[in-house]
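Folds abound. A case:
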Amino acid sequence: MKSNKLIYTLVSLALMGSGCKKALDLKQQGVYSSTNYFRNEVDAVNAVTGIYSILPEEDYIGHAESTFDTPSDDYWRSGDHGEDEAIENLTYDASNAAIRYPWKWRYEEINRATNCIINIPKITAISADVKNRSMGEAYFLRAFGYWRLMIIHGDVPIITEADYTSLNFNVPKSPIEDVRKQIESDLLKAVDLLPESYAAADRGRVSKGTALGLLTKLYMYWEKLPEAIATGQKVISNPAYALAANYTDNFTRANENSTELLFSIQAVQNVVQNDFTVYYIPRPWGGYGFSQPLQGLANEFEAGDPRKEATLLSVGDKVDLGDGNGLTTFTADLSATGFAFKKYAVFNTAAAGGGVDHSYAVPLMRSADIYLLVAEALIRTQGAGAGDALINQIRRRASASLKPVSGAGMKELIHERRVELAGEDQRHQDLMRWDKAKIVDIAAIYNLAVSKAPLDQNKTVTFVRPKNYYFPIPQVEIDKSKGVLVQNPNFN
């Protein structure tokens, strides 16, 4: 996290300026390791909190993970990261920097979680509730690290607790089936251990619904549709995870106490920078101007659907930047596509000078996603119309004026997921799993004119099956393993 790095730098400079000899003469008070750190309840809670602290990292969920949705037909890469162009055009190789960046953070999350799983059970000065909760959080967060590895790369190394204890981190890849089983095992444990909800002081921690939600997503990608229905129903039938009354509230500070946010990135103004948000905001407004929505996404919204206005900024729209200058107009020079993601353009209108708001929770998984996954599983197992009730709940929440669906099949379900979850890094993975099931033709979709930025109209995107269903293992990791890691097929 940038702010923490800055704090460490300032502390180091202060020590250097205060006299090196005095600093070197300080008596060492203690050395902590996994064997002597875990003494009491506070240590357990702090260790688990340390797992969460990885999420806002710019090279992890803060930004780098969203790069893997860049090939989708929802938005254009923009920005000044040259490696993103190869990701978008499916011309990347194993040396691509964007593929390398988040690898170590996924395993850092797994390692920190495993450390907690091994050591928290040894603590005696801890209440049963906190011990169970902490273990549940660690199991979920380890599962999430493996989930991102599996979704992006397929076969990946599994670091067992025995490997961790013996410090053996150079292990070969496990088949994707084993990775899925590892994720499932951790999530089932998390479901048993986690509470349904938390008091305000612990806002943002994962709940039983979070684990059930990710388990539902796992089963959908595993093509275990009946299991997805069973776990998903436990989320959508529980008032603790109810949809927010207003769609827009999911993307403002109003989401702080939302039941819909199953998993989110927590940031704090002037302490932890929310890179996820910054990347979506136009540069003249204090952001980086990445991920600019495409015309095809804008066209997808039905007339009168307020989710379009909540999701997209179009030329001529007005925004309060909180700078005291009233409303600012979104102009054509702010985007090469004519659009920006409004749902992440959140500004600190309550503070003098305004600026990007870093204190709202960025949604990583919402109940709405689970509603639509269950609807999809019902359609695919029971036929058209089986998911109508759930799709219509999502549509009614968006606007009472939207016409209810009747006899909805996959076409209607695909539409609803696109407009509901636009910009939330679901589209490319959705299209790939539907392509595997021969429900869509991803190669044809990606070459539609509305699926490309105006600057890229002459480019042909070639989606190669099965090569492009997964990204390669970073070449640097292959090299470091000295033959233990084997590259994914078609990337040698």
Q: What stands out?
A: The two ends are 34 Å apart (CA to CA). Residues 128-153 form the longest helix (26 residues). The first strand starts at residue 75 and ends at 78.
